[in-house]
Automatic annotation (TrEMBL):
Residues 5-59 form the Arrestin-like N-terminal domain. It comes from Dentiscutata erythropus. This is 27103_t:CDS:1. InterPro entries: Arrestin-like_C, Arrestin-like_N. It holds the Pfam family Arrestin_N.
Amino acid sequence: KYHVLQPGNYCWNFELSLPGKLIETIEHCNRSYVRYSLKATLKRPTFSQNIHTKRKIQINRCLMSNYFNSLQSVVLINSWRNKVEYEFSIGTGYFCLENLL
């Protein structure tokens, strides 16, 4: 069954569940990136070309504001061949984009 669409803009709302372990969008790195996009296709009758469009999407994790308060700090203490002793302390093992480390 076919429908004729009059000229104009059309909007179809949809939902897409993404897996929780999906990697965030990563850009502006020298040699690698992770990017995502959605592609929509309007299928047309046999002798007409289908219409495709693509939209870039950004995937960012949003943590609860009190999330970092529940994390433990990371401390590394060691010595190197009895010549140098070092200690690194990081407030948490996680960071957000644009945070200073």
